[in-house]
Amino acid sequence: GKDFSYSMLYRIAKTAGIDIAVLLDTDSADARYSITRKGHGLITQRNRRKGYTYERMGSIFRDKYVEPMHVMIPYSDEALNPPYSLISHAGEEINMVLSGTLKVFLGDRSEVLYPGDVLHFDSMIPHAEVALGGQDVELFVFILNPEAWTDEKTYDSTVREARILTENV
Fold first, then answer.
1. Fewer CB near the last or first residue (10 Å), C or N of the chain?
2. H or E stretch at 9
3. Centroid of chain to Cα 89
4. CA distance 161 to 34
């Protein structure tokens, strides 16, 4: 038999309105809980954020209200300079810094977070993150499921991008 490509499976899952993990793991068809061991999450890349890695930590849990992710943000001198690409999407987001120093842009403001700090915000506020201090940032991000509160709109359908051209925040 012929194997399907990841991108084809992703399109099939998206069209069917299911998580791709359901197609990849037959045990997840009726999963009401999920344990993801360190280093074994579903890795996803987003074109908007080069070098960032997003490890989905609860991908097989069905009908969930939150998307937990282990995120690594690489330090880059280049990333510290404007313009900054901000995104917004339906729902709420919680960022919990594990290591490194994180600068978060929130609309016309910015905040600096350190290990142990937690930021909870309305993710319709345009936002972006950059690593400070010469080291990568490791954090947990919890995106509270936009499908639960936005008339069945998906994360992808609510994403908007903006740019900040100068650092005045």
1. N
2. helix 6-16
3. 11
4. 31
95 three-state secondary structure: strand
DSSP 44-63: E--TTSTT-EEEES-TT-TT
Burial 121-133 (b: 16+ CB within 10 A, else e): eebbebbbbbbbe
pTM of the model: 0.70
Check if the beta carbon of residue 159 is closer than 8 Å to that of residue 104: no
pLDDT digits (tens, 9 = 90+) for 118-142: 999 999 999 999 999 999 999 999 9
pLDDT at 46: 56
What whole-number distance in Å separates Cα of residue 105 and Cα of residue 81?
Answer: 13
Give the Cα separation of 18 and 153 in Å (integer). Answer: 14
The more confidently predicted of residues 99 and 61 is 99
For residue 44 the two structure tokens come to 């996803």
Contact predicate 111/103, CB 8 Å:
yes
Instruction: Please tell me the distance from the alpha carbon of residue 106 to that of residue 65, in angstroms, as a whole number.
Output: 23
Query: Is it true that the peptide bond before 74 is cis, omega within 30 degrees of 0?
Result: no
Q: Report the alpha-carbon distance of residue 46 to residue 121 in Å, rounded.
A: 21
Q: Shortest CA distance to 155 belongs to which of 14, 6, 2? A: 14
Is the pLDDT at 89 greater than 90, yes or no? no
